[in-house]
## 1
Amino acid sequence: MDFFSACVLAAGIGMGLGAVGPGIGGGMVVGSALEGMSRNPGASGKLLTTMFVGFALIESLAIYALVVVLIILYANPYKEFGLKVLEHVGK
Amino acid sequence: MEIAHKDVDTITYTWLVMAFLIVLSLLGTRGLKSMPGGLQNFLESIISTIETMLSDTMGKHGKSFFALIATLFLYILISNLIGLLPGFFPPTANINTTLALALIVVVLTHVVGIKKHGFSYIKHFLGPVWWLSWMIFVIEIISHFSRILSLSLRLFGNIGGHEVVIMVIFMLVPFFVPLIMSVLGLLIAIIQSVVFMYLSMIYIQGAAEEAH
């Protein structure tokens, strides 16, 4: 496997795994908020704002994974090194 | 020092957002009336909403931070929303802008803490029991540095990630589907500016109150 296919593979697996936890957490947030709203519809406005803020905080974990993936794909710090290794292996 | 092409774009659009906000405020405050209508009414409703959130979160001594918090919110909101127009680049999709904003907030929290508590501000870092304070000190230092990272990366990742997603979808399906992502982007733009404002209020409040 060469350097670039390893990068793409790492990016795909990393983003997929990074989306699992925030997905579960976000589902729990929305589920509890819906439960609270259906029990007390009068408080739904306040619950909705708090839910959005909390959801954004959880979602940011997936965004960190996205940032790392974008670094791997577009701004890999080991690109030069990887290309050099490839040249040596190619010989 | 050489400036990359992307950063020149960011600087230009930052100036555009600044000019927009300045002109909007000048137009809104020209000829103030006690019975506001039109633009003045619109701006007053935004400002009073921010003020209500501020006093709910920080109590009565939060008033002195109103200018900073409201400026951060309005600047981030307009910068995020500008990215929804085709051809415009949101300044917050560049890590330098968001890092600068996060540094302002985090440095300010420590300035507020030292100003308010003096030398005993160090109690914030030492935890409740003295024999564990060496460990808690290290953890607290790391957590305070990670605030810079999380504040800047959250905003950058959301807005920059949205730009990348829009770009990829435009390449795959140029009709109708980018519209759905743009609606999502509108939601992200508003929520992320609110979250940045909310977190900076909580951080400043945490430094200002007594050590737990």
## 2
Amino acid sequence: MHRRDLLKAAAGFAPLVIAGRAFATPAAGSGRLLLVFLRGAYDAVNIVAPVGSDFYHEARPTIGLAKPDPADPDAALPLDGDWALHPALKDSLYPLWQRKQLAFVPFAGTDDMSRSHFETQDTIELGQPIGGTRDFRSGFMARLADALGADRPIAFSDRVPLCFQGAASRTVPNVALGGNLKPAIDPREARLIEAMYRAGPGDEAGLSRSVAEGFAVRETVFKSLADEMTQAGRGAVTPKGFELSARRIGRLMRDQYDLAFVDVGGWDTHVNQGGAQGYLAGRIGELGRGLAGFAEEIGPDAWRDTTVVVVSEFGRTFRENGDKSTDHGHGSVYWVMGGGVRGGRLAGAQVRIAADTLDQQRDLPVLTDYRGLLGGLVQRQYGLGADRLASIFPNADPVALDLL
Amino acid sequence: METGIMAALAARSNRTVSTSAVRCALFGLVCAVVAVPVSAAPVLGDAQLLDRLTWGIDADSVRDIGGSGASRWLDAQLRPTSSALPPVAQAQIDAMRIGREPLARLVVEMDAQNKAANAIADPAQKKIARDAYNKTMSDLGREAQSRSLLYDLYAPDQLREQMTWFWFNHFNVQADKRDIRAMVGDYEDQAIRPHALWRFRDLLEATLRHPAMLRYLDNDQNAANHINENYAREIMELHSMGVGSGYTQKDVQELARILTGVGVDLKPDSPKLKPQWQPLYLRAGLFEFNPARHDFGDKIFLGHDIPGEGFGEVERALDLIAAAPATANHVSAELAAYFLGAPPPPPLVARMAASFRHSDGDIATVLRTLFRSPEFKASLGRGFKDPVHYAVSAVRLAYGDRVILNADPLSGWLQRMGEGLFAHETPDGYPIAASAWSGPGQMETRFEIARSIGGGAAGLFKPRDGSAPEQPAFPQIENALFFQLLQPHLTPSTTQVLAQATSQQEWNTLYLSSPEFMRR
């Protein structure tokens, strides 16, 4: 049975009153959503590569991936007749593709043409129409949290990201999962500190909520991960880097949180990015191990109603640059994975890739707007009506890719 | 309300000293709270000004501003004449390798060590050599951090030190990329600090001529027919005009062509060049302009024809960029956001941008316009400390002029709070908005740092070379300065919580965790 069939009307709930404001009834949906942001603009077409295009091989003579070849471990892995996957994902995400739990959306991105990392990351995180006045205190994940009402949001990052800023209904907590998570402040001192912030005048930054939430989330995370840390203490091999964080996120989203964000950096490859081997292969391999580890830790039950969306601010130049790498481009390839995802396919509009179809003669064009894609996903996942969806992504029509 | 605080102090002093005496007796500690005579009456407005324009209020800065008055103190900060550190701090800097060896020699030596290590055939020996190389590089990076923090803590020209941090962040480089650890100290000390309060055009060129920047944004690999537009884009987007200010993708590509051949050379001799190129070759330390790598085609940049001629094209381009109204606006808006601690009102930015244009981009003149504005005065005391301000101000308050002997703990705290020196990976630098630093997880981490600082010296007085035993030094936050300037403005809830402290350490932790101490 598909999740949509499980969605039962939640109408009839009394409006929630939080922080003195009335909020609409929570949406009918369920499930978990994790947004993974690859900051720095990952070189999408060297990971999900259009190897069926001769132009691809012309444009990337030194870094492009080779067409699938079972005899060549450095060759790309077949996805469909046109596209193939980076070999560094062979043991992590390729099995999910084969189980049809992973889909790729090529030609995805924004209509922001600044080619600025920071501008375009902001564009995506705000999720507001381009051209209007931007409200920098209102990210789309925060608006989603407000629209859902009853979810448990969290950012697994050392800062609360822009996309989670400005939730009216709550303070979204953040926690970085890299290191030792044992709380250092004892409960008595924590109570005293909270008392200094409670009812303080001039709390325009919302520090009191932030402080209370900070102590609470640390306690929750520590308790949820206590088993893992005990095992680690007994000399078990623990993963490192993003894989460690991603596995912890899997545990926490199984038990505690259902609307989450994590970002991964290190994708701005202007120099020596490599091809089947090398720098980018190492980064993507770590990402793949992390996401596969996440799926494993969250467990089969929770995985069935979990959606993971991987985005990046833009793609990179379709042709390699003078340093066997790539500069800032436009269209990217986004990923959608989860136990209930209708995957194993390239989703969304496509165009034949050739010199004359590139955007400004240099980049992949954008045919699927990120707001339409994400809007379509959350609409299906949570059963959102048009008005509620419009509060998350104003002036953006959801794109129906039938992924959920 | 700028009433003299000293009058109020006289009335308070009996009570405060007796409270303190009780606490000292309670905790069984020797804490001689002596009222340090302050030469003139500091007023609340002065204290707030200090907290905003220095790295945190301390007894020396209170004495300085009380002696000269706020207006003359500000003049002296805008046009500093002395950077003299206390001898104990200066001696630490003098002992550093980055202070003794010129940049070019240091980088060339490290490059040779790296190559020698990589050439070793035996894997075990190679690993030993590579580890030694990495340790030396880490030490160089750590020296740069320590020197920077010693200036923050003890330099008399505090505003210049804040501006040094600000401009480093504006022209950010990350130490961990390639061999920048060996360069980052020089970048801060030679490219940034000397220009921090003077002409923006000079600062821009100083960063362009520094190998740390050329490495970080890959321009050392930008050559004719091998264009790399990374640096060209960030100069316009981040360093000067600002994104969306009117330049085009074509301008970025043209600037990238203009910048071809601007790079880094570690070799002692000039490259062999065709005779017609030899007079165009430039070399200064590790910086070079190599005509053999330059695109001599004509360019059109920001609407101006720039004929191909060599490095003169770069000078022309920098002139155009520095004189662009968008640069005056963008830089003014960033300065205002940093010093107001909030998004700046557009009319204020417009007045600052006018000062920028009329003064040929003189940074002190732009800052004077800001500091004299009613918007600035209204913002005092309402800013939220970012992690660097938080930790440095805590050490300045806790230890005063007692100079720390090891800055590593302080560096570590900054790292834990997500604002490590020279550690930001991307060229946008650390965010300035308060909301970037006040998230739940960040507040919790900050309280842990408060505990580390409040609980004892945490290694600040233990020389890292082991040359002397640790000199115990207990943080003295409940000092004369506290009673005179800070205590009178605590909220009742903070006062009540502080009264529940069961030890001096806990009192310190709680005060450093208080909402009052988060503000500047």
